[in-house]
Every structure is written in structure tokens, then in C-alpha cells.
Amino acid sequence: MVKKMWTISLFCMLLALGARPAAAQFGQMTGNVIGEDGQPAANMAISIDRDDIKGHYEVKTDKNGKFFHAGLPLGKFTVSVMKDGKKLFSQGNVQTRLSAPVDVPINLREERARTEAQAAGLQIPKEQGGKLTEEQMKAIEAASKERDEAIKKRQELMSKFGAAMEAMKTKDFDTAIATFQAASEVDPTQHVIFAQLGEAYSGKAGQSRDSAQKKEFLTKSTDAYKKAIELKADDASYHNNYALALVNLGQVQEAQGELMKAAELDAVNAGQYYFNLGAVLVNTGHMQEAADAFKKATDAKPDFADGFYQLGVTLIGMATVDPKTGAMVPPPGTKEALGKYLELAPTGPNAEAAKSLLETLNTAVTTTVGTKAAAPAKK
Q1: DSSP string, 261-304
Q2: Which among 293, 377, 305 has a CA at the least distance from the CA of 346?
Q3: R_g (Cα) of the chain, nearest Å
Q4: Whole-number pLDDT of residue 372
Q5: Residue 102: beta bridge partners?
Q6: Which of the residues 19, 36, 274, 371 has the least number of beta carbons within 10 Å of its own beta carbon?
Q7: How high is the pLDDT of residue 370?
Q8: Mapping DSSP to helix (H, G, I), strand (E, B) and coil, where does residue 28 land?
């Protein structure tokens, strides 16, 4: 009886054991995160996502950059480091296990250096096992820092230059000057900044009614142009604009020399350079020099209609009066210049004016000739 009861008890115990549900199997994950500065990355969000089926887990690093997550199902995971919603690092195929926690060491500094190395086309020797040496990382980080600073500097430069150019559009030359100067301090090797600074000072001089201030602004304009030419001596437009500023300062000979340089550097536009010089010379009362400039403009560009017209008008302005007849005597080439304009632009904006001037000249010549022919009859 006793034996039978024992057998039943054993059977019941086995039955109870067999009816117990299977225990769930979980793994653990740990890791240590080193930041891009080489120091432990505290309070960093770690995203753990299961690869085979849907499953998402999160944990944060402690003050020493360490993280730990228990109760993870057995499987493969992708571990990511997140910051402000941006993924800084990701490693897939991380397998959890029943035994010790799977360790996921993360070195953001090394990862960034490796990325920089790949971007620069640098190969990591196989004997290094895909890892960078401390010396290599420092070299890559230095290059990266230099590049980042260059980008930041260029962005600042473009921002200031753009703001200055906007001020130029509205003729706010005070703002333009201050902003161009600030841009030149960011990068003093940019010739275009000094060229535009020269333009701004010239514009400011044009707004000034005080002769002393005007001269001061024009002097600063020429200084800026000289700096631009020092940085880029082969830019014809810089020599051209520098020459115009010199003329406004009364330095005509120096201006002519700069215009010669501009024409030599840019033969295609030499006609326009000489034309610009002629226009400024007329405005400053240097008529003979202006006529010479317009003549050079037409020589450089034989189809330059406006050049011929301005040459003719300038020569008429230099006409003299015959003391015997009282007739106007224009310099040689006046009629030819006006006639060439009408040939090139018969319906141009100055056509009627050119015809009127020619009629005046023809009348003057006829009167002069008639007077000379009648003289013998009086004797």
C-alpha cells in the first residue's frame, strides 16, 4: 500500500513538472560610447532595433558613457547612437545570447576619422585590421578641422559680401563700405572685395557735395583699386575702374597709363575702355586728352558708332574762330567722325544731332571759302 502511494505521488509530481510552461529566454546588451572629442559620451540615446522581426528598445548612457539593457529577446539587432534625432553611428548584426551580455563598444571619434579618411581617399593598411592609429586620427582630425573652418569662413565671407552688394543696389554706400571692409577682414586675399570697395567709395564720392570729402573718398577708392590690382594684376576691369577714379582726382597721366594696361590685357574691350576714359576726361575739362581717348576707342573698334559721335562732338568743342572771317574752324577729322557715325548708325539716337552739326560745319566752310574767293575783287 505504501509503495503504491509513492508511485502515484511521483507520477503526480512528474505530471506537474511537465505541465509547467517553458521559461522565456532573454539576452543582455552592454556597451561603452566614446564621443567625437575622445571623451566618454554621457546621456547619449542608444536605439536598439531588432533586425528579423519588429522590436524597438531604447536606453541612455550614464556619466561614464556606458549603457546596459537587459530583457532583450534572443536575435540580431542594429544598435544606433542618436543625438537630436540624428543618427551618429549604426552597427548591425549584433547577436544577443543567453550567457554573458553582448558587448558593443562604440568610438564615435574613430568612426568619424574613418569616414573622413574614406572621403579623402585614404586607405587603411590591412595589417591595421581596419583601425586607425592615434597618429592617423589626429592627422585626419586636423585636416577636418581646417576644412570646417574654411567652410565656415567662406560662409561668413559670402554672407557679408552679399549684404554689401545688396547695399550697392540701393546706393547705400555707407553700409556697403562698412560691410565690404568687414568682409576684407575675414579674408584679405579676395581681390573682388577690394574692387567693389573701390566702387563703393567712388559712389560715395559722387554723392558728396563737399570737395574735401569728395577727394577723400576718391583717394580711398584708388587705394582699394590698387589693392585689388596687387592681388590680381591681370584683370583689365580693375585697371579701367582705377583709371576712372584717378581722372576724378585730376591724375590724368596716371589714368591714361592704367587704360593702356587695360587695353593691352583685354584687346577685345579696349574700345570701351578708351571710350570710358574719354567721357570722364570731357567731364573734367580735359578736351584734347578726351579727343585722343575717343580716337583710340574708334581705332580699337572701327564699328564703334558712339565712339565716332563723341569724337566728333569733342572736336567741335575744340573748334577755333578764324580771326579774319569769324568762321568756326573745327580740328581735322571732325566732319569725318560725324560722317562715320551716320554711316554706322543712320537712325541712331544721335543721328539728327550729327546731321545738324555737319550742316553747321558745311555752312562755316562755305562761308570761309566764299570770303576768301571774294577778297581779290576788292583790291
Answers
A1: HHHHH-GGGHHHHHHHHHHHHHHTT-HHHHHHHHHHHHHH-TT-
A2: 305
A3: 43
A4: 43
A5: 29
A6: 19
A7: 43
A8: strand
Let me know: does 104 contact 29? Beta carbons within 8 Å. yes
User: Which pLDDT score is estimated for 156?
Assistant: 92
Amino acid at 53: I
Task: Name the stretches of the chain with pLDDT < 50.
Answer: 1-8, 10-19, 366-379
The answer to whether 51 and 7 are in contact (CB under 8 A) is no
**pLDDT score recorded for residue 253:** 85
Residue written as cell 537712325?
347
- Rounded Cα distance, 91 and 103, in Å: 12
For the chain, how far is it from start to end, CA to CA, in angstroms?
184
Q: Which amino acid is at 19?
A: A
Q: Is 379 exposed, middle or buried (0-12, 13-18, 19+ CB in 10 A)?
A: exposed
Residues whose CB falls within 8 Å of the CB of residue 119, separated by 6 or more in sequence, listed in order: none
The residues pairing with 80 across neighbouring beta strands, listed in sequence order, are: 47, 90
Provide, for the chain, the percentages of residues in helix, strand and coil under a 3-state DSSP scheme, each rounded to the nearest 5: 60, 15, 25
CB 96 within 8 Å of CB 23: no
Domain architecture of the chain: domains with CATH = 25-115 (2.60.40.10), 157-364 (1.25.40.10)
Question: In this predicted structure, what is the pLDDT of residue 321?
Answer: 84
Give how far Cα 329 sits from Cα of 72, 324, 336, Å.
Answer: 107, 12, 14
- For residue 67, the cross-strand partners are 31
pTM for the whole structure:
0.59
Percentage with pLDDT > 70 across the chain = 86
Instruction: Give the SS3 label for residue 334.
Output: helix
* Nearest Cα to Cα of residue 193 among 179, 203, 206: 179
Are the beta carbons of 204 and 220 closer than 8 angstroms?
no
Of 198, 291, 181, 315, nearest to 249 by C-alpha is 198
